[in-house]
Amino acid sequence: MSIRTALQNRLERIENDEKGFTLIELLVVVIIIGILAAIAVPVFLGQQAQAQNSAAISDLATAKVAVVSSLVSDPDGPDAALAGAAPQALTDLGFPGSVEIATGGLNFCLEAVSASGAVFSVGPGAAGPAEVPCP
């Protein structure tokens, strides 16, 4: 038998063999993808809520800096009558619109609600924002 005949026979066998994936192989791949998706979606949603909470905390920290900076020109602190709205003087200092003044005066309390629904607040002390509403 010549080499040419052997190669032709081999080529015919390769062409006649079955090609592709079996149904079982495809089902196994689909099941694995489903399991990975079931694990990934809750993790992604948890990260999204954590990012929304971080944004609210960051806004509160910025608002606190604006209020403390305004104490230089207005030693009485933000007006309690303006609770819920930020005066122009605070807005000029970078007071974010997503933060509300819950309590005015020197013992101010600022409050923000994250997109995930968590309520955070911060007061005049050295402590940072906490996940509690203003008293």
Could you please describe the fold and organization of this structure?
- By secondary structure, the protein is mostly helical.
- It has one domain (20-122).
- It has helices at 3-16, 23-70, 88-92, and strands spanning 99-103, 109-113, 119-122.
- It has a three-stranded antiparallel sheet, covered by helices on one side.
- A hairpin with a 5-residue loop joins strand 2 (109-113) and strand 3 (119-122).
- The model has no long low-confidence stretch (mean pLDDT 82).
- Keywords: Membrane, Transmembrane, Transmembrane helix.
- The chain crosses the membrane at residues 21-45.
Give the helix/strand layout.
Blueprint: H1 3-16, H2 23-70, H3 88-92, E1 99-103, E2 109-113, E3 119-122
Antiparallel strand pairs: 1-2, 2-3
Low-confidence runs (pLDDT<50, min 5 residues)? none
> Got a strand count?
3
Mean pLDDT across all amino acids:
82
Distance between the termini: 97 Å
Strand order of the largest sheet: 1-2-3
Described by strand count, sense and barrel closure, the largest sheet is: 3 strands, antiparallel
Q: Helix content range of the residues, please?
A: 40-55%
Structural class: mainly alpha
Counting DSSP H or I runs of 4 or more residues, the number of helices is 3
Fraction in beta strands: 5-15%
Approximate shape: rod-shaped
Number of domains: 1
**Radius of gyration, in angstroms, nearest whole number:** 32 Å
Order of helices and strands: HHHEEE
Pfam families: N_methyl (PF07963)
InterPro entries: N_methyl_site, Pilin-like
Organism: Microcella frigidaquae
Transmembrane segments: 21-45
